[in-house]
């Protein structure tokens, strides 16, 4: 898992939403796909579509999207739409539809919590404190309305509240509000 690439994605999505872009793309990886699906599930993104270097001809609405949380567990999730070969592997992109409400971006800020040189691992009790608004280790508590914290666990990427419900911990990835 490359946190450097994830930090580039975080800054790209924040800049794309502040620039009022309707559609943007990020490189395809399992980590980026998992985060994009959870951002869509939490309401920060409108659509998530797999494509090549150019935007897909038809954007699928969220209800018809091929990507679900259960589909992430299958090993061939990246090969669902088109056969991935050695020649086209580097050109695969995730096309993300940005979401706006009353002219303002829904995704205003996206900040990395763990850094490549300082990874932050929290157990479920520490995540419970963060969800309740208290600080734990180097992570500030979730005090804002609509704020989400994404955690990489052994069961995939999850939102912090879901980790607390399932009583599992992991590495804190990023915070979105």
TrEMBL record:
Taxonomic superkingdom: Eukaryota
Magnesium: is it a keyword of this entry?
no
The record ties this protein, via InterPro entries, to: Ribosomal_uS8, Ribosomal_uS8_sf
Which keywords label this protein?
A: Ribonucleoprotein, Ribosomal protein
Gene3D superfamilies recorded = 3.30.1370.30, 3.30.1490.10
Q: Which family does it belong to?
A: Belongs to the universal ribosomal protein uS8 family.
Output the PANTHER family linked to this UniProt entry: 40S RIBOSOMAL PROTEIN S15A
Q: What is this protein called?
A: Ribosomal protein S8
| Annotated organism of origin | Neodothiora populina
